[in-house]
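F.,

This is the one I mentioned.
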């Protein structure tokens, strides 16, 4: 049974792996046996150390995914990969009455447009090579709910859940699994404003049955599962890792 979750010999490209959720996922995949290609704007030195400590190879590629421009170069530099984790994302907070077009476009481009075209580029390579692979999209609780003061983030993550399903419909028969993980409220840079807001922090914790914020390493198990042979017949699924938030 343990062999179902063994990623030995696999290579995973993880976007936004320098910190937070991406780091937790990359390290979890490495500990299951995968070599890691980390893509992001800043140097992933800490992630490198943790991956190499797990005995796996680590490659860093510098890229700014605010546009689709680096996608071709990233896919070329990454070389042969078996797993793609679309984790990189941004958030902008403002009342909907005050939300700007620039903030709307920035979030939609990074969280949705780049994810689609990076997935497309990787899938084209897999199909040209006559093989399949695993794509894991990091969606959100706001793929299911509206949220507050984050209209573009909610739109992008709702759209990403839809893209996960439509790509599954087109690519499942090609041996490509496209699934998603929906993290709940995790203690990362993206949620720093919520954690520091005493009222919102209390309201959030009161609703989470697990009674705590998630930690990046809490995503490792779901990521390993969706990257491994254990999930070979899973297509288009969104797996919540939320401390029970959606059950409340």
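My design for it:
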């Amino acid at each position: 049974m343990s062999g179902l979750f063994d990623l030995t010999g696999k290579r995973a490209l993880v976007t936004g792996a320098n910190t937070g959720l991406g780091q937790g996922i990359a390290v979890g995949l490495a500990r299951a046996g995968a070599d890691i290609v980390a893509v992001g704007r800043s140097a992933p030195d800490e992630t490198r150390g943790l991956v190499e400590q797990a005995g796996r190879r680590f490659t860093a590629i510098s890229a700014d995914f605010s546009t689709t421009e680096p996608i071709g170069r990233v896919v070329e530099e990454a070389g042969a990969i078996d797993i793609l984790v679309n984790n990189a994302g941004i958030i902008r907070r403002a009342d909907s009455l005050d939300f700007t077009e620039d903030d709307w476009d920035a979030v939609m481009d990074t969280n949705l447009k780049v994810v689609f075209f990076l997935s497309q580029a990787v899938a084209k390579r897999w199909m040209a090579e006559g093989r399949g692979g695993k794509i894991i999209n990091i969606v959100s609780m706001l793929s299911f709910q509206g949220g507050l003061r984050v209209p573009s983030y909610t739109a992008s993550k709702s759209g990403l859940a839809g893209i996960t399903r439509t790509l599954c419909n087109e690519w499942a028969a090609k041996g490509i699994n496209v699934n998603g993980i929906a993290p709940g409220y995790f203690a990362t840079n993206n949620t720093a404003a919520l954690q520091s807001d005493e009222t919102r922090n209390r309201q959030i914790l009161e609703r989470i049955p697990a009674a705590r914020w998630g930690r990046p390493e809490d995503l490792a198990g779901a990521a390993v599962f969706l990257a491994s042979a254990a999930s070979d017949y899973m297509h288009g699924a969104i797996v919540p890792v939320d401390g029970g938030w959606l059950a409340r």
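The longest strand covers residues 176-183.

Talk soon.
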